[in-house]
Amino acid sequence: MPRRRAFRRTPPTVPTVVTSKTAWLGLAAALLLVAVLLSAPGSGEDRGCSGARVTGWRAAEGMNAELARYGNDNARLDDWTGGDGTRTVRLPDGRTLWLSADTFLDEVYGGKSRKPNPVWVRNSGLVMSAEGRFQRTLLGGEESRPTALFPGTATGDGREAWRWPVQGVVEPRSPGSKEKVVRVLLWQREAGTAPWIFGVPRASEVATLSLPDLEVEDIRTIYEPRHTDVERRVLYGTSAITEGGWTYVFGADEGSVSGKPSRAHVARAPEGRLADKDAWEYWGGAGRGTEGKSSAGAKGLGWQGDPAKSVPILVGETDQRGATGTYTVVRRGDTWLLMTMDAGGSGLTDVVSYWSCTPTGPWHGPSKVAAPPLPPGGKEAGAVPYNPQAHAEFDTSGGELLMSYDVNVMNNSSVIHQDVAYYRPRFLRLVTSPAKKK
Fold this sequence. Notes:
mainly beta, 4 helices, 5-stranded antiparallel β-sheet, DUF4185 domain-containing protein
C-alpha cells in the first residue's frame, strides 16, 4: 500500500483538468443537498424514550480558529487546506481522526487564497492530538506526487473510480479481540455522464486502519448495489453508531439525481465484524417480535441478510420532509437524534432534527436546529452550507454537542480558491434537551 504520511515538497504544476473537476465537486454537493428522503411505512417499534431536540446554539469559535490555523500554515505544502465530507472518530489514545473527501493541498497566500488550480486529492485524513491541535495530514503516494489516502481505481473502460470516506468507528479487530483497529466506511463511485456528474454509485466498502500508526491495511467490498434503476442504489456510511454490541450504519439511495425522492436505509453488523460483509444485516421493515432481533427466516420483516430486502426507514411524517443523503445520527441519552439540511422545507438554509427511540424509527420531527452562519462575505459570494455532521467526541462538560457543516460555492468554483473559507467546514455548539412525543 502507498505510504500514509505528510511530507515536504515543492508544489507541482497542476493539469487544467482540475478546474473542471472542481466544478463537478460543487455540482455534486448541490445535488446531494436537494435529496429528500421520504417516509415509508413499517419502520420499527417505538419503545418509548425521552426524545431529543436542539434548544440553542453558538458558534464554536475555538474549533473554527484551530482548523484555520492548520489549513493556513505553510510549514508544509502538501497538507490539507480545504475539504468537505467532514467526519470524526476518537482513537483509543485520545487523538481524533478527521476524515475528509475531496481535499485541496498546496500553499495558502496571506491566510486567504490558493492559486487557481491547486493540487487536490479525492480523500485524506487529518490527525488531531488529544489536546485538540491538528498535527498532520494522512495521504498516499510519494513525496513528489501525493495521492488519496484511500486509493482510487478505474473501470474496465478506463473511467475514474474513486472513494469518498464517510463515517469511521473503532472496534476490536475481531469479536472479543483486545486489539483495536479503525474501520472506515467508504463510498466508491465511478465517473459518469450527466446527470451523474458526481459519480455513479458503485459500492459500499470498509477500510481497516491499524493502530496507533493509522496505516491502511485493506479495503473490502461490503455491498455492490445492482439495482437496474441506478437512482435506487443505496450506499451506506453517512453515519455509524455502535450500541448494544452492534454497529448501526445509515445510508441512502440516489433518487435526487433526477429530482425524485431519495430514501434513508439502515444496516448493522456485530461489533468487531464491520469489515465482514456476511455479518451485515439490513432493515427489512417492522414486524411483531422482530425489533432488535436477527430474523433471517422472516419473510421481508426485521433484520435481513439480503441487502436487496432493505426497506426505507421513516424520516418525518409526510412525503415532503426528510433528510439529505448526508444526514448525521448521534445518540443523546436514550434517544437517537438525526440532523440534516431541511431539504423538504427551507432548503439550503436551515438544519433540522428528528428523533427516534430506535435506529429504525419512526423519526419524529422536524425541529429547527439552526441556520448555519456563513464566512464573512459568503452570502454575497453564493456560498451555501451542507452536510451537517455531529461529533459527540467533543461534547463539552456542559453536554453541548459539536456540529460541523461544510461550505461551498456552487455557481463559481474559482471563488473557493479566492477565499479558502468558502470550502472549509465550520462548527457550532448545540444545546440539546429532551423532547416530548407528538
